[in-house]
Amino acid sequence: MTEIPELTMLADLAEGRLDPDATRRVTGRLSAGDASILAARDWVAWFHQAAASVHFTEAPPELVARLHGLMPARPSLVQRLAAAAGGVVAQLVGDASLGGPLLAGARGVPVAEPRQLLFEAGDVEVAVSVVPPVDGCTRIDGQLFADDPARPVELVVGEHRMAVTADSAGEFSFPMVDLPPGSVELGLTIDTAGGLIHLDLTPPASTHLSEELS
Q1: Is 61 part of any domain?
Q2: Whether 88 contacts 195, CB under 8 Å
Q3: What 8-state DSSP symbol labels residue 3?
Q4: In terms of pLDDT, which residue wins out, 109 or 185?
């Protein structure tokens, strides 16, 4: 785009970015009736008048939802971990939340109660308990069921990582997890004898919008 010097000068004048000498030169040209700078001034006045008559309305939720559906989904945290470090994403086969068992496909309701999750990856099973915040910190416990259960376990909270090693029974714990406010991705990476497995612990998203659109 070609820059119009007069428009730049008028903008700098209006926002006080010109030094005293430059200010006198621009105001002098305006007072003298300089055609080019007067044309720029008139264009700015027209633009502000036209912009004032434009009113934007919020798009209907149905349209926003459809547009989001047309966009490629951003890979989840565990998908990005698997792509970067290798390994596989474990399958969630059970989610006991809200005081009763839920199938993995029935997830989608935010919970404030403990979540009991069961994951599978080949011959490996992992049970995980996510306890809601107490004194501001979430507790995450788990147990790895595998031939060699004393393996390194890494918790990934957004961009932050914490590491422990499971004991001889495959049990591990992150007793003080400080989750930042708002939406956060949460995952586990376990270095099993057969390779890395990645578990998605991110809390389920609300289904309120989808219910409203159905």
Answers
A1: no
A2: yes
A3: -
A4: 185
